[in-house]
């Protein structure tokens, strides 16, 4: 699930708020932070 959400975020299909909404059910809060922070560094 982590890889799927990361790809969706990078492609712009979901935003940071949507990624965070999946925590803690599908991913951890730390994973949500990693997904949103990784693309901000580019």
Notes on the structure:
The protein has 42 residues and is mainly α. Helices cover 64% and strands 0% of the residues. The chain contains 3 helices and no strands. The chain has helices at residues 2-10, 16-21, 29-40. α1 (2-10) runs parallel beside α3 (29-40).
Major sheet details: none
The proportion of strand residues reads under 5%
H/E element sequence:
HHH
Number of E-state strands = 0
Unreliable stretches = none
Mean pLDDT score, rounded? 91
Distance linking N and C termini: 22 Å
From the alpha-carbon coordinates, what is the Rg to the nearest angstrom? Answer: 9 Å
Name the features.
single chain, 42 residues, 64% helix, 0% strand
Summarize the structure.
The protein is an all-alpha fold and 42 residues long.
Write the layout of secondary structure elements.
Blueprint: H1 2-10, H2 16-21, H3 29-40
